[in-house]
Amino acid sequence: MREIINFNVKWAFTKNATEVPATMPEKWDWVTLPHSWNAIDGQDGGADYYRGTAYYAKELKKFDLPEADRYYMEFRGANSSADLYINGKKIASHDGGYSTWRADITDALEMDNLIVVAVDNAENDRVYPQMADFTFYGGLYRDVNIIAVNNSHFDLDYYGGPGLMVTPEVKGEDADVAVEVFLTNPADGQELVYKIYDYEENVIAEVKQAVADTKAVITIPKVHLWHGRKDPYLYRAEVDLVKGEDVLDTVSAPFGCRTFKIDPENGFILNGEEYPLRGVSRHQDRWGLGNALLPEHHREDMEYIYEMGATTIRLAHYQHDQFFYDLCDEMGMVIWAEIPYISKHMPNGRENTISQMKELIVQNYNHPSIVVWGLSNEISMAGSDADLLDNHNLLNDMVHKMDSTRLTTIACVSMCDIHDPYVQIPDVVSYNHYFGWYGGDTSMNGPWFDNFHKTFPNIPIGVSEYGCEALNWHTSKPTQGDYTEEYQAYYHEELIKQLFTRKYLWATHVWNMFDFGADARNEGGENGQNHKGLMTFDRKYKKDSFYAYKAWLSDDPFVHICGKRYVDRVEDVTKVTVYSNLPEVELFVNGKSLGKQASAEHFFYFDVPNEGVSELEAVAGDCTDHSTIRKVEKFNEAYKLKEKGAILNWFDITEPEGYFSLNDTMGDIMANPQGALLIGGLMQQMQKNAGGMAAGFEMNEGMLQMMNGFTIIRLANLMGTAGITFTKEQLLGLNAQLNQIKK
What we know:
Layout lengths: L2 E4 L4 E4 L14 E3 L21 E9 L8 E6 L2 E2 L1 E6 L2 E7 L5 E4 L7 E9 L18 E2 L3 E6 L3 E2 L9 E8 L2 E8 L1 E2 L6 E7 L5 E8 L4 E6 L5 E2 L3 E2 L2 E9 L2 E10 L4 E4 L3 E4 L2 E2 L3 E5 L12 H14 L3 E4 L6 H10 L2 E5 L11 H15 L5 E8 L8 H17 L4 E7 L14 E5 L12 H11 L5 E5 L19 H15 L8 E3 L5 E2 L11 E2 L13 H10 L5 E3 L6 E2 L3 E8 L3 E6 L2 E7 L4 E7 L3 E8 L2 E9 L34 H5 L2 H17 L3 E2 L2 E2 L2 H7 L4 H7 L9 H11 L5
Parallel strand pairs: 27-28, 27-34, 28-29, 29-30, 30-31, 31-32, 32-33, 38-44
Antiparallel strand pairs: 1-12, 2-3, 2-4, 4-10, 5-9, 5-12, 6-11, 7-8, 7-10, 13-16, 14-15, 15-19, 17-18, 17-22, 20-21, 22-23, 24-25, 25-26, 35-36, 37-39, 39-42, 40-41, 40-43, 43-44, 45-46
Helix pairs in contact: 1-2, 3-4, 6-7
């Protein structure tokens, strides 16, 4: 029988070695897996986290292993390339940091063994990802196991898969379940025993076949359908490889029976019923851990997403832990799974896109939660060329051959022309739009999708990313780019009203459920992170926008007063926003009712007299929530955005009345002939310095249109992520020039 031995404990680790050691190192650090060497420096800003080769070493005595014919070493995640050595001999290599891979180590084992893994997350031009707005944490950050098997066993070599493929087909009230297995070294006299278990683990069907017959079709009468959150019913397929009474090997997989389609007018259809996909994207990392998560971290993430009421998750931008896919099956989440073919097309990376896609599909085929395979994300930032298009057509065709039961999709960057042939390749399309944060305003989102839908009525269109950043900054006059919790709440209120009322959108995914590590970022006052999350990086605080979604999506009654961290307020009458999924809310101030409000949009706005200290209580049905505000004469400076390490803050810039400054938008300045001349010259110099490109961002018409909504100072701060930097003197000099131009 197969045995799986966890191999996580007591590895020696170093970033300082230059070669594979011949003996067990004495001066390396001891670590227990999962582990990442970028858990701190990949989250503190500066774009300076260690990217290179690091080494893990561990001793293994063969007599500590169970008796078996073959031994495989299994890596659940080694980012991003890895070489396995046993006793100084290279056994295997793997490129791709987010998937499972294995190596047969049997013939290399001696009585005493030194296992060394060289893991490398250095920059290159062939392994994805290389350019993206998140940290590429290096390390052995998921489980490492040794699998002991009989010489005859279910396949362990093919793209890290489980050796078992389950394909249910619903036919009326029944389902035909095709169960196919893949064998290594089958022998005469062996047989395969196929079993189907129901949710209560009762055997409901059993078939025995000769070992040469590796596929069985089993009918489940009156099948119980997997129906998302409403009813995530799971069966389990199990296959034994037997010889006589002896079980040589066993594989099993939960599965669900369901039908779905994506309709360009009616959105997502699950089991013949409209089932709106409204949810979030998720990055897997955590504060102080990087990607080295434990099961309890994954489970906590799922609990928060479930509480919010989401029906879908985009698992961005890479393959996630198998444990989390299992949770998605169990909790009824509908999933977009994708590979990290992102931001920058690399001609030398084609083989890596193919291998990562094969691993994604082979390893995750049995999950009923997955409905679309994502080919790429924002890959056309620099425009689509023949090689990029060819790569996408190849991937799209390959996916359809490997899995005829699911659809393909892409996430297009905002400035990608909807007529680009790249947009026509997959079955369904989604766009990443940040109107109201990165240029434009919130009102532009819905009409943009209406235009796409009108232009291409037969292409299902969705929203793969939208969001804005918020930290613990506060204001009563939220404005775009201020990083306040209040602006983020306003932004999501507006986007919810626009997106959730457009039935044709096949799915909408907030960017992002949680703040995440992006070491190149230097904005918002807390460097090294993207703060678009509905919750903080440490999962300790749900921002107000979290509750805006809960009000629309969750059926669990609640009421929430916004602005709990915004206590000190200067105005005599202040606006207090309340969210609830109940139809009516009453607000009390120091025990006195301000009246009841009804809202079909779930957002309630009260004008509250601000005198002394006011205790607020919101009541909706049987639910209550409490908050406090306090009248102050002077604005509390602790609420004002302060850029940590910023070259220049917006409030330090001189703004002569009637004249331009760095605090004006590029669009307004460019509308002035003198301003256009000044900024145009600056843009030309930037293009020249970056060779027409900034870390893959082409200075094309679409990019310039988006940039028009930024103030010059905000644009300058953001340019750091694209490798373009300014000195304080340069910015002050530009501001002085702008101060001479009349509006």
